Amino acid sequence: MRLSNLSKEIDVNKTKRIFALFIKEVLQISRDSSAILIAVFLPLLLLFLMGYAISLNSKHIKLGLVIEKSSKYTQSFVNAFKTSPNFNIKISHTTQQFANEMKNGTLEAMLVVPSTFEKDLTHHKPQLQLITDGSEPNTAGFTQQYVNAIWSNWLSQEGISINSIPPAVIIKTRYWFNSPLLSRYFLIPGSIAIILSLIGTLLTALVVAREWERGTMEAIMSTPVTIFEFLIAKLFPYYILGIISLVVCVLIALFWFHIPFRGSFWLLFVSASVYLFPTLGLGLLISTLTKNQFIAAQAALISGYLPALLLSGFLFPIASMPMWLQGLTHIIPARYFISILQTLFLSGDYYNVIMPNLAYMLGLGLIFFIIIVKITKKRLD
Description:
Helices cover 66% and strands 6% of the residues. The protein is built from 15 helices and 4 strands. The chain has helices at residues 2-31, 33-52, 72-82, 96-104, 117-122, 137-158, 184-205, 207-214, 217-221, 227-255, 265-290, 293-310, 323-328, 333-346, 351-375, and strands at 61-67, 87-92, 109-113, 129-132. Strands 2-1-3-4 form a 4-stranded mixed beta sheet, sandwiched between helices. α11 crosses α12. The mean pLDDT is 82.
């Protein structure tokens, strides 16, 4: 009976110690305006920047239309380009002017409509020449797609068939999950993972380092607090800040950018909580190793933010990377969380995609915390 009472007393004391350290950390955060700025205002700034400044769509492409011979068909064709928001067009009767402008970089593409255009239409064999600036492959690819779309729509509106024999197979394209074909639909969900990477890693990277710099670590080590209690009390306030940042980002994504959300919010909360596990762990590991806030902040940006931005599949497809770099992406938690976010926002609750990614993130978090517990000792050296 006495042993059970002693065990209960030890548990109560452990809870009191964790709660006391938790309150201490909350008070430090409330007095530190930089932490509030990083947790609340930085997500707003980054989300608006990524929502408006970063776009994989090309609009207002500078296109030169070379009309070698004017006719009713060429006038109608030019009007189709004038009404398109994707192009800013110029018109000329020769290619020489536009060729010079493309060399100077003031024009991005040139579409040549030959003098035989009307005659070729009557024989169902029209030919156009599209010349694009290959120094910008992304813009060149979009230009080709937009021109093909306008060309197909124009033929349909004019009732012109370019094939004398109707095709045996008619292809009708349908886009799933992102029917408007807006890059914002997958960039905004992915940016939430990047923001949580920055916040979680950067804030926790300063936690232990700040204690060493302020000289309060010696006082903490003189108490009966265990390493596990110390880590839990340090991380939980920043986990709450991370969830607050998540809520802010999701609200902006839904009500400002009008990104569809087809999954469940409880699964989003669980996924974000699991993602913060390795993210906070990485920041705490950096803080434990460096013991200096400036060095910890730099290390957090290099090891947390940049890999999440460049190697997670957020901007660049992982499949297009070299094989050795594809292998390196497996240790980046953002890779898995971005996949979960894009699935929840655009597709729904597809557990065959979500559950393996959750398992990978949980495994990475366990690895980080095992390393932290091993290297963190209650001593001053």
